[in-house]
Design goal:
The structure is a single chain. By secondary structure, the protein is an all-alpha fold. The chain contains two helices and no strands.
Length: about 70
């Protein structure tokens, strides 16, 4: 489970996250990168307006049709 950093200072949180990430082993950092990539693919695939992802390792730079946000 990932740690949760709490502070009122964003710079302090950024520094704690940076220290945590670089404190991981190379294999743990690789596993984290794979998990983040899988989450990004799931978010992209959740929008039906996007074309399907290629399985040949092609890169998607941005959504083809962004989901409109609600006004506040």
């Amino acid at each position: 489970m990932r740690p949760v950093f709490k502070s009122r200072d964003k710079a302090a949180i950024d520094e704690q996250q940076r220290r945590y990430y670089w404190g991981l082993t190379p294999y743990e950092r690789l596993a984290l990168a794979v998990r983040l990539n899988q989450q990004a693919q799931a978010i992209y695939a959740a929008n039906p307006a996007n074309p399907p992802l290629t399985t040949d390792g092609g890169q998607v730079l941005k959504s083809a049709a962004p989901i409109p946000r609600r006004g506040r």
